[in-house]
Amino acid sequence: MKLPHTVVMAAWLLLGLSSLVRAQTSWVEGKNYFLINPARPPAIAAGKVEVTEVFSYGCPACNAFLPVMHKLKQALPANAVLTYLPASFNLGEDWPMFQKAFFTAQALGVADQTHDAMFAAVWKTGELGISDPVTQRLKDPLPSIEDAARFYNRAAGVPVDKFLSTAKSFAVDTKVRGTEEAIVAYRVDRTPTIVVNGRYRLYAESAGGEDQLIELVKWLVAKESK
Length: 226
Hints:
The chain is of the alpha+beta class and 226 residues long. Helices cover 52% and strands 10% of the residues.
């Protein structure tokens, strides 16, 4: 039986779209993602795969990337664990302070609930802004850990003195040291960077775009899940 012309055309269209999808998921190591050698397997439960964003609250690109991270979180399979590593290598934009503030908030159990609000405090309200909104120049002085303590007091009810004492604790110092070692081992040279299971490093640029990054991360998670 001869198929109607419209049916044939629809079939060819579906075939073309299928080929396009396959082409977009033909990821190339060394181009779309990069092997971390030696790998640093994360200390998580068996069967889980860690997906990590290396970021800073003081990084404008990370702020712009926040909606992508929301999409990625929703798109990840149930066995994926999303974590964050705050970088400190940009001293001029207050990254070391934001790194310490994140780990202090994490130690106090409020990092997740205040994550988006921290970005807003830096880039929207200016409460922890690093640049003057009029001149666009970096502030002098930059926000301090005391300023961050007041933010967490307002946003999460953490007493200022408790936040500051925790920021000086051995536990937070250990987290900072471990993170510095991990970022060097991962060969991270920019933010935001995504690391999958301590084995693969990628960026939106290497993936070909933000939507492609989400698909690539899912593909790498599936690869690590085998």
